Amino acid sequence: MIPAKGFAIFSKDGKFQEHRFNRHALGKNDVLIDIHYCGICHSDIHAAYSEWGEGIYPMIPGHEIVGIVTAVGSHVHKFKVGDRAGVGTFVNSCKQCSNCLNHHEVLCEHGKTVHTYNCPDYFHNNEPHMGGYSNCIVVDEDYVIRVPSDAPFEKIAPLFCAGITTYSPLKFAQVKEGTKVGIAGFGGLGHMAFKYALAMGAEVSVFARSESKKEMAMDMGAKHYYSSVKDAKHANLDFILSTIPTSYDLTDYVRCLAYGGELAIVGLPPFNVMPTISIAQLVFDPNKKVYGSLVGGIKETQEMLDFSILHNIYPEIKLVEGKDIDQVFYDLTHSNALFRHVIDMKKSFK
Ligand code: NDP
Ligand code: ZN
Ligand code: ZN
Predict the structure, then answer these.
(1) 47 lines ligand 1 (CB under 6 A)
(2) How far is 236 from 214, CA to CA, in rounded Å?
(3) Pseudo-torsion of CA 281, 282, 284, 288, nearest 10°?
(4) How does pLDDT run along the chain (350 residues), one tens digit per residue?
(5) How far is 301 from 160, CA to CA, in rounded Å?
(6) Ligand 1 mean position to 243 CA, how many Å?
(7) N or C: which end of the chain has fewer CB within 10 A?
(8) Ligand 1 pocket residue status of 190, Cβ below 6 Å
(9) What is the residue-wise DSSP string for 245-308?
């Protein structure tokens, strides 16, 4: 066992508190990472507040992790002590099913994807796995991303969820030079999607629910900024990525698509207000594709990191400390936040 400490929530209406726990011992394929930074994703809020069904408590969220390798198991060959490393939304899977073998580990067909938190660790006695709002983590090297030593460390962390979750559907939809793209929800994920789409050569518009980020979006190179989706029904977009974490009307976005256009959804609102779409809507506004997307595999995550570094694409971040988590959750759910908050773990413990 490896003693660890983190910031845990103990019930859906609780507050974060410092919490001591144990990481499993270092296995022969594992690396021990001293965590330096961890991003705060809106998924952390949905999970911590049991908005996707009852959470597993105590819960230490966090799945946008970067740190430095401090120990390696005897069979580890990708990492050595002192290397920079990243961990995203999952830390293990079966490695044998066709999805795992085809680099879609998060879609493990045997149901063995171990999500970084709020999930039993199927490979270690089903102990609930604890996330990155903590000082260290032990992960199988196959699920750890190599981070170059000259990359801006604290800005790399959010790439392991916000980055890959938006890069992956943009690639899947083959967004390229001239594609007319709309990004719905302009927060942590949305602003990364925006930057990637722009780098892929697309003409990018933003859908938000207020005017507050209009100037920023236009400065960043937006084609249009819609504070109401109703104003965009003749936009004729080829591709829309929805990152919206609240209830909304999906049909409004389908309407903004050109014939043959695609709406990919990554935002996952609370289950009790989950948007739905009617068959009649799809039939009478036909030949448009609507589908979901779930983060991305390890291979694609490494590709996303290379793309981000090559094109100098990083999130806009605000550094915070562990004591600030409750306030950040409040701000993210009260339209009082810009893009991404990143916890400086080294400054967080007394
Ligand atoms: P943020 O809170 O950082 O950003 C959400 C943005 O959406 C905010 O800018 C917010 O604006 C805006 N927004 C909220 N409601 C609406 C609305 N009705 N119309 C337009 N804009 C709206 O969240 P994240 O980017 O971190 O996460 C977004 C969602 O993606 C979450 O549901 C999260 O769980 C999910 N997610 C899914 C993943 C996947 O693999 N599919 C992976 C990671 C996250 P305002 O400032 O006004 O509140
Ligand atoms: Zn996330
Ligand atoms: Zn599998």
Answers:
(1) no
(2) 21
(3) 130
(4) 999 999 999 999 999 999 999 999 999 999 999 999 999 999 999 999 999 999 999 999 999 999 999 999 999 999 999 999 999 999 999 999 999 999 999 999 999 999 999 999 999 999 999 999 999 999 999 999 999 999 999 999 999 999 999 999 999 999 999 999 999 999 999 999 999 999 999 999 999 999 999 999 999 999 999 999 999 989 999 999 999 999 999 999 999 999 999 999 999 999 999 999 999 999 999 999 999 999 999 999 999 999 999 999 999 999 999 999 999 999 999 999 999 999 999 999 97
(5) 7
(6) 5
(7) C
(8) yes
(9) -S---HHHHHHTEEEEEEEEE-----GGG-----HHHHHHS-S-EEEE-----HHHHHHHHHHH
Ligand 1 atom 13 nearest Cα: 185
- Name the CATH code of domain 163-292 (choices 3.40.50.150, 3.30.70.3400, 1.10.357.140, 3.40.50.720): 3.40.50.720
Whole-prediction pTM value?
0.98
Judge if the beta carbon of residue 242 lies within 6 A of ligand 1: no
Nearest Cα to 303, choosing from 170, 201, 189?
Answer: 170
Report the nearest-CA residue for atom 20 of ligand 1. 208
Domain extents in the chain: 2-161+296-347, 163-292
Question: Which of the listed CATH numbers 3.30.2010.10, 2.40.400.10, 2.60.40.1120, 3.90.180.10 matches domain 2-161+296-347?
Answer: 3.90.180.10
Tell me the ipTM for this assembly.
0.99
Q: Is 329 in the pocket of ligand 1 (CB under 6 A)?
A: no
Q: Which amino acid is at 341?
A: H
